[in-house]
Design brief:
Blueprint (H helix, E strand, L loop, with lengths): L2 H22 L6 H24 L5 H23 L8 H13 L7 H13 L7 H4 L9 H5 L6 H19 L5 H13 L4 H24 L8 H35 L23 H5 L4 H10 L5 H6 L1 H10 L22
């Protein structure tokens, strides 16, 4: 079969499994209620954990781990909201939820701008102008630089912007991308960082610098003075750092590590969904998966059937994996790490 025929078969069988699941469990049809309940519980529990930490009942490391897990759920919820899976007809509730999942995950792009980049990702997954995936290191060689900047959307993107914008310009010149689209995705990629994402990253940079100074002074007899005004910033933002930013730093590292290696890049045939993603669920990725709600297990399913919620994908993933494996979707292609995420072997 051609890749289009295989894609059609995969979509049909997965969609049928979803329909059968909802027939067996009619409550799953209550999509708005389930989505709002997940939002309310995950957001409420994360803030409650923050309160327990603040009154010294819960240690910081437990707070960070639990909230990283909860924010991973909220990321999946945001992804569903970007595809209008909850309250599509009620813009007020829809946008309240979208704002809520963003404000609790401020290291990410503004979701209203990200929506445009994400739709572009689905249309042009794996191309030179797939700005959403390239922004999280997809397509780069694995080295210390990629590892350090895997979770970083500010400095990390600043370091890759010349290469990325150069590729987009060439894609326009080669007729692979409209000028208007290129201008829009570049503009939205920038505007999506302002102001919350940049401010949140800067606070983490100050926090990291303070840790480094204290480490050097304690272990190497140095006497580096940390600027007083920066110390005062940390004093005011300390609850924000521990309740929101550090859990999100862990979550974002895990998500970007998983997503940038399950998506293929650079030599993906245009429109060939078979070549866009793999299922990445090898055992050693479990710690990463835990803090991005097992993204590697289910995201490839989403590329075939877009308009379904993340919890349905999880419940029905066994059947989806069976039909995907039978039709050529790769599972745990670890060669992607040495091929800089290319689908095929790099010719020397």
């Amino acid at each position: 079969m051609t890749h289009k025929q295989r894609t059609s078969l995969i979509r049909r069988e997965i969609s049928e499994s979803y329909a059968n699941l909802k027939l067996r469990y009619p409550i799953l049809k209550e999509q708005n209620a389930i989505g709002f309940a997940i939002f309310f519980l995950a957001a409420g529990l994360s803030l409650f954990m923050g309160y327990l930490w603040y009154i010294n009942i819960v240690p910081g490391w437990i707070l960070i781990l639990v909230n990283a897990f909860l924010f991973g759920i909220l990321h999946e919820l945001e992804h569903d909201l970007i595809h209008y899976m909850y309250f599509k007809e009620n813009k007020v509730v829809h946008n309240i939820m979208l704002f809520g999942v963003w404000i609790l995950r401020p290291l990410t792009l503004n979701p209203w701008f990200r929506r445009t980049l994400h739709y572009h990702h689905h249309r042009f997954s794996g191309t030179l102008h797939d700005i959403e995936e390239r922004g999280v290191t997809n397509g780069e060689k694995w080295n210390l630089k990629r590892l350090l900047f895997t979770p970083d959307l500010v400095v990390g993107n600043l370091l890759r912007i010349y290469s990325l914008f150069g590729d987009i310009k060439r894609e326009v010149q080669n007729g692979n991308l409209k000028y208007e689209t290129a201008h829009k995705i570049k503009l939205y990629g920038f505007l999506g960082l302002i102001p919350l994402t940049i401010i949140s990253h800067v606070i983490l940079y100050i926090f990291t610098a303070d840790l480094l100074v204290n480490f050097l002074n304690a272990n190497f007899a140095t006497q580096i003075l940390f600027p007083e005004f920066l110390t005062s910033i940390l004093d005011y933002t300390n609850p924000l750092i521990y309740i929101i930013l550090l859990p999100n730093l862990l979550r974002q590292f895990c998500l970007h590590f998983i997503t940038s290696n399950l998506h293929y890049f650079g030599d993906v045939e245009k429109g060939n969904v078979i070549e866009q993603t793999q299922v990445l669920n090898v055992w050693w990725t479990f710690p990463f998966q835990l803090f991005c709600f097992f993204f590697g297990w289910t995201h490839a399913i989403h590329h075939f059937v877009v308009n379904e919620t993340f919890y349905i994908r999880h419940i029905a993933r066994k059947k989806a994996h069976e039909v995907m494996k039978a039709n050529g979707i790769r599972f745990n292609d670890l060669g992607t790490f040495k091929r800089a995420n290319r689908y095929n072997e790099i010719k020397s």
